[in-house]
Design goal:
337 residues; 2 domains; five-stranded mixed sheet
Amino acid sequence: MSAGSTGQRKTQRKTGFDSLRADLDDCLGDFNKGLELTADSLRTKFTGNDQLSGLSEKIGVGVSLSVVSQIHNLKEADWDRIRIGKKKSLDFKRACGSTGYVQVECKGTSVADNQVAGTSGLKGFASHIAEKKAELRSKQPNVTAYGTIGVIDARENSVLKCWLLDPPGEAGDRDPKEQRILNRLFFIAELMETILPQSPTTVALYKRLLMLVIANALYDYNRVPLPVHPSNLGASLIFRKARTPDNKSLGVNILLNDGSRFYYGMRQELVKLAVEQDFDQVLAMQWTPSTVSDSIVVPDGAESTDDDSTRSSGTRAKRKERPVFTNKGRYGVDRGR
């Protein structure tokens, strides 16, 4: 899709709190039931047809995107799914690096030992990617494309593996730098839609994105801040949400079926980036993945996270209305290929 057009955004990425909550128990349950941590990686408890439905594919996606992101210095915010059309295409993710587009198709399989030559299933996946290769147009100079196969095995000292193939890709119509800015702003907007669905800042960000995807010159809007009142930012915002004690992260505290809770949060600095609309700072944002142990502050009167949430008084929390952007506002926005 050209930079100057919009259309129905076709993506399988789920957004909004309800979508997150609907899948969370199943995803965590599959992880606990089907996988185990090893000293350096993960191992599977099941292989072949005994594997839990969809788990191999999810592992393949995670492994593949991690490897390609390391190669091209990409972040989660840089990736977006490719639309599924009539023709075969690399149907998973497309990202924008500092020099151009990166495309990847992700496959996954679970085997007894991924060190064995000729691991079962790899040839079939490779052939599938080759079929798509035959229907794609010639590789464009600003596209780097991969076919990837993530393989997890059942060994006690298992280490995940990723095989890289080289199918051609399809270039985007936008300048890669501008597309990377859009991808990152959409990433922030989708976080805010889940955590701050009724915030005027979230509404203002989506309205701005509607303008950016049809703009002929994206940088005409550089450093043009969102029209939001200061009361919707800073301390007045974060102290109404579940948060980390250092106030660097705000989010929602989700009650799971087993009685435990899951914290889904975002860095407060991302809200600041969204409001200021400094595209150079959006491009420069960096963070290092890490695992930390911390407590979560849940203020009195914090917004309900699901129907089963309760206040400290023990009364049922009032369910909030649906997010502002559900159909026209949210899914009618296109990233502007």
